[in-house]
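Run log, item B.
One chain of 327 residues. Sequence copied directly from the ordering sheet:
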Amino acid sequence: MGLSAKDRKTLWVRSGNECAFPECRRKLIAEIGAYSVESNGHPVTLGEEAHIVADNNSGPRADPSMPQSVRDSYPNMILLCEEHHKVVDAANGKFFSVEQLRMFKAEHEEDVTRRMDRNSAERQVKDGKITLLLAEWESRVLIDDWDAWTSWLLSPHPRMHKKHFNQLIPSTVWMKSRFFPPGEYKQLVRAFENFALAWGDLTQFLDRNFKVARFDPAYLELHAKYKEIPWDPPLYDKLGKDFDFNCDVIHDLTMQATAAANFLLACVRETFDPVYRFDSGFVTVTRGPDEMLKFQHYRPEYASEDLVREFPYCGINEIVKRIQGAG
């Protein structure tokens, strides 16, 4: 008759893919190619589905009164490695009784359940901490107001309200000091570190080049030195070009930071929480006004060639080189 597919699945799952003999716990499905060249690259099954009461009337611990359907059912089966299957059936099973094997099976399955529950609890704790970290990140980078505050940076004369500046600048240190469990959340860690790189370059550049706005002390703005000098055409031209260059760098860094934010949002959804920020979606930016007094809306994302690098963000040196080449 043989074991049904349902009973076989129950046996293997409740045994945790381990031998149920006390203190053995050997894994009973080997990884690809781990034990046998004959496996042809496929997993090797090392477990044996052993009968507690023999499947025939002359086998180990036989009970002629037990119906065949009961003999070939989950309650009468125990999962063992080849070695311990031979041990329990030696001398036609006289060294291990039906009661002992049932006890071995029950105790092993209880142990597997306890370990699974503990792992599940540990996972919940870790996931809870990641959730809190993401919430803190959202708050520190003003993710819900992203389009509003970045639009000031993408204006012809980049500026930012002091209260935003004072919140955003210190967040770089916070990001660089974060810790993830080793070996876990690898894609998420990569996306978070990538964002920290782009964010660090943006905030450091702003910190170096912003000063209190000339006509509104509640704001900081890109320092326009050419507006502060006595009339000197050559110097005015040089400082004007410096301003335009710094303006282009800020615009590019802002777009790069937005692409990094969207990359992180996508990684969270792919690897951690499929409905993360479901109602908000990705972040967008508004650039302008241009010469025609029009505004353009963008959702910056990385190109496929960016994603093959260790970090998709290209770095400020590449940005500077690109802008200088365009000039």
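Observations after the first pass:
- The chain is about 50% helix and 10% strand.
- The CA atoms of residues 144 and 171 lie 16 Å apart.
Flagged for discussion on Thursday.
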